[in-house]
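G., the chain you wanted modeled:
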Amino acid sequence: MTTSSPRRALLRALGAAALAPAPVAHAQPAYPSKPVRMVVPFPPGGTTDFVTRLVAQELTKVFGQPFLVENRPGAGTVIGVDAVAKAAPDGHAFVTVANSFTVNHTLVKKLPYDTLRDLRPVALMAVSEHVLVVNPQLPARDAREFVALARAQPGRLAYASFGNGTSAHLAGEMLKIVASVDLVHVPYKGQAPALADVIGGQVAAIFANLPEVLPQIQAGRVRALGLAAPARSRFAPEIPTLAEQGFAGIESNSWFGLLAPARTPDDVVARVNAEVNRVLAQPATREAFEKAGIASLARSPQAFGEFLQAEIGRYAEVIRRAGVTLE
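Predicted structure as tokens:
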């Protein structure tokens, strides 16, 4: 008995269906789908650059796409931050910010981006302490003697900073308030030229990043007077805090954290945060940070956001009390 023509057609159709490839679901492209920019709004060579490049190198290994560090300094970090605030929110652009990001919220009257709305926290990465150092020819062996010298010469002693509105600038303003002294602020474009002039004797003092100034302290090119931290540093425990010497409330540091454009997807932010925190926990990273005098600060995006809010409030109070402006 032969199979009817309609039945043969049905069997052929079923056979073809069985051999046909299954329909492919339209999944989202793997992240990242291209090289990722990590903008550093400072010149190359500083602590921000060091931290970002170390993390970027490890993220490149994990994600299989290059995480490329791009230095875009200028306008007190505003240029680099704005570039990322206006970038596509697809997880392929980040910016490493420091204290100036939270200072600028109050100090810069017309920012081209909204600090709280145009960027979102991804990961807090590291912190380095600030130490008050002076030219070794200055007749001051500690912070108390420096304050006495400043009081004897009101408006004569000058302190350098990394630039107007930087954490080093505001640390000097805190010292002026707490110690009731009249110091002259001399802003520079970065710590390197500022520190060079302190070493050269053109300026008396600076609140400097401990990792970058510690070799100069150890070589005797500058003298450390006091750490602007609540406790002594494990990287230089011989340096007393300013609070120990009677000047409580002067706390200054440089912290470094990663931001993304505001509408960057939650899953991308969560994944990058997890991988950054994993990098920070690696023994090799900890060793590199320790050698540089830097402490890691792994935090969730939410905790980093709360930290940023607190820093904005803290610096706003210093700016208000000191009457700091950019003019």
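Residues 1-7, 13-27 have pLDDT under 50 and may be disordered.

Shout if anything looks off.
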